[in-house]
Design goal:
By secondary structure, the chain is an alpha/beta fold. The protein folds into 2 domains: 235 residues, Aminohydrolase, N-terminal nucleophile (Ntn) domain (Glutamine Phosphoribosylpyrophosphate, subunit 1, domain 1), CATH 3.60.20.10; 340 residues, Glucose-6-phosphate isomerase like protein, domain 1 (Rossmann fold). It is 35% helix and 23% strand. It has 19 helices and 25 strands. The protein has a 7-stranded antiparallel sheet. It has a 6-stranded antiparallel sheet with strand order 5-6-7-8-12-13. Strand 18, helix 12 and strand 19 form a beta-alpha-beta unit. The chain is elongated and about 85 Å long. The chain binds 2-deoxy-2-amino glucitol-6-phosphate (AGP).
Length: 602
């Protein structure tokens, strides 16, 4: 977890910056750096590894400057190198800044800035902000920062200084904590109160969209309410050459899963590192029960999470639709935590349930894709998916991202409890393989398109699964309903014989999710019951399983992985099947009738 420190006042900045970085180093870091201006010349020193390596480069007494900034970095975008350590600067070594958070649209911004002639010296998302500020700098740093941040999407806590607008620190935050310490004619900026305690009597906690202008004499705070720059939004929400956002978002799942994994897995120690849960990490050790609250597709993700958390973290877990949680008698206690899962972070049913739970004093954590959304701010802590904006109404990449984050959370909680190092390493390693396995799964797109052609005229479908893949049966059915308006029903495979099988005949196909897992044999029995009634069956099976071909009408293969991670793969053929059936039936893929992307009403 990164740490920011800034100082402006009468004392020498360097010793205060180093003291602050030492106090923030407990958060975990792999490089550090500071910058001050001496006679108008930037002195920017960085080092990888321990803070001592940076200290060895600094002759503290040599630098008399009264203002500067520093940072301890925990690598997310870009490896652990001196070039990637903060502070970062612009082309002219005028603008210097340190940053906590993740800039989601940094690739598009960087490409644009490179086209405009900017030269980059690191692989980080942070450096993009320095060049953006340079682009708008005309003497007043705060103005340039304001213009630059309107183009940025993601979470940030920033401290910025400029050679050509000296004796000033600009601090800004959006969804990543940043505080300002107020001393006697001196001010400090930090991401952690520990860093400023010795120097400040009062603190100001910046709020989202606030920009502070700090000089040795005073501080003023601007509330940035300007609308975001549509130009970047437009670029961002282009279909990237795909006919529909839904197909683009299905096909970009290797990246939407892979990119946020960077910095979140420590395979050698079998650990998951979720920065947004750092502040509640100790409290999570005492959680005895989890209530997952979500709606629609997010609820299906929660149902997979229930199996993960119970099997690998040993935590009794219940999943509830937000619309139900609020109105039923809750048997809750102080050891129960709420986990809200939401792509948009604005779903009224989920939000209402969170407010209800908070009134009862429950700790609420979130798994949210939309940075800065209401649910992300209402929960006590949480994890951003960072899957990028999901435009298609039918949720696809957000869903597989939710499953991935739930697997990371299971690893984190499991290793706080009885999970062994070996098991942790095994799960962490397999999670790191998921993006490539997703890519392999997507290779069956052409075959699935043919299956859609073959099955598009049926009017009813059953989707069946067991254990980890029961929620995928529910999700596959929902995808088909949403996109093609056909009737589809997801159900536990074992429930078929308790009534549903009355529906089965040659006009009622079934999608059976039967990977080679702990319940495969049971699934085969259920498929045989359906075939005995002449029901057509499409099986989702594990690569290499030739036997299943003798039993069913069509097979779509997925790669082998851990049972708990299989849902991330088994859902993909169902997403594509729904897409192509809907397309062949002439439906409005990205804006299906009656549906909204974010259901902000009860
Ligand atoms: C999913 O395809 C649907 N669009 C819908 O069920 C959605 O998952 C549900 O409304 C919850 O939305 P959220 O994840 O933004 O809270």
């Amino acid at each position: 977890m990164c740490g920011i420190v800034g100082y402006i006042g009468k004392k020498k900045a360097v010793p205060i910056l180093m003291d602050g970085l030492r106090k923030e180093s407990y958060r975990g870091y792999d490089s550090s750096g500071i910058v001050v201006f001496e006679q108008g010349k930037p002195i920017c020193l960085k080092a990888v590894g321990k803070l001592e390596n940076l200290e060895n480069r600094i002759q503290t007494n040599k630098y008399g400057s009264g203002f500067g900034i520093g940072h301890v970095r925990w690598a997310t975008h870009g490896g652990v190198t001196e070039a990637n350590a903060h502070p970062h600067c612009d082309c002219k070594e005028n603008i210097f800044l340190v940053h906590n958070g993740i800039i989601e649209n940094y690739r598009q911004l960087r490409e644009k800035l490179v086209r405009e002639g900017h030269k980059f010296s690191s692989d980080t998302d942070t450096e993009v902000i320095a060049h953006l500020i340079e682009k708008y700098f005309q003497g007043k740093l705060e103005e340039a920062v304001r213009k630059a941040l309107r183009q940025v999407k993601g979470a940030y806590a920033l401290a910025v200084i400029a050679r050509d607008d000296p004796e000033k620190i600009i601090a800004a935050r959006f969804s990543s904590p940043l505080i300002i310490g107020v001393g006697q004619n001196e001010y400090l900026v930090a991401s952690d109160p520990n860093a400023i305690a010795p120097y400040a009597q009062k603190v100001i906690a910046l709020e989202d969209n606030e920009i502070a202008i700090i000089t040795p004499k005073d501080i003023s705070i601007l509330k940035e309410r300007e609308p975001q720059d549509l130009e970047i939004e437009a670029e961002e929400s282009e279909k990237g050459g795909y006919p529909h956002f839904m197909l683009k978002e299905i096909m970009e799942q290797p990246e939407s899963i892979g990119s946020p994994l960077k910095g979140r897995l420590i395979i050698a120690q079998g650990l998951a590192k979720l920065g947004g849960l750092e502040t509640v990490k100790e409290k999570l050790k005492n959680v005895k029960r989890l209530n997952i609250i979500a709606c629609g597709t997010a609820r299906h993700a929660g149902l997979v999470g229930e199996y993960m958390l119970e099997e690998y973290a040993g935590i009794p877990t219940e999943v509830e639709a937000g619309s139900e949680f609020r109105y039923r008698k809750q048997i809750l206690d102080k050891n129960t935590a709420i986990l809200a899962v939401s792509q948009s972070g604005e779903t009224a049913d989920t939000l209402g349930a969170i407010k209800e739970a908070k009134q009862k004093g429950m700790m609420c954590i979130g798994i949210v894709n939309a940075v800065g959304s209401t649910i992300s701010r209402e929960t006590d802590a949480g994890v951003y998916n960072h899957a990028g904006p999901e435009i298609g109404v039918a949720s696809t990449k957000a869903f597989t991202s939710q499953l991935t984050v739930l697997a990371l959370l299971t690893l984190l909680l499991g290793r706080q409890r009885g999970m062994s190092l070996v098991m942790g390493q095994r799960i962490a390693k397999e999670i790191s393989r998921i993006p490539e396995l997703v890519k392999k799964t997507l290779e069956s797109e052409a075959q699935i398109k043919e299956l859609a052609e073959k099955y598009k005229d049926f009017n009813n479908f059953a989707y069946i699964g067991r254990k980890y893949n029961l929620p995928i049966a529910l999700e596959g059915a929902l995808k088909l309903k949403e996109i093609s308006y056909l009737h589809a029903e997801g159900m536990p495979a074992g429930e078929m014989k308790h009534g549903q099988i009355a529906l089965i005949d040659e006009n009622f196909p079934t999608v059976a999710i039967c990977p080679s897992d702990s319940v495969y044999e049971k699934m085969v029995s259920n498929v045989e019951e359906i075939k005995a009634r002449k029901g057509p069956v499409i099986a989702i099976a594990t690569q290499g399983n030739e036997d299943i071909k003798k039993l069913v009408d069509d097979v779509i293969y997925i790669p082998k992985t851990l049972e708990m991670l299989t849902p991330i793969l088994s859902v993909i053929p169902l997403q594509l099947f729904a897409y192509y059936v809907g397309l062949l039936r002439g439906c409005d893929i990205d804006k299906p009738r009656n549906l909204a992307k974010s259901v902000t009403v009860e």
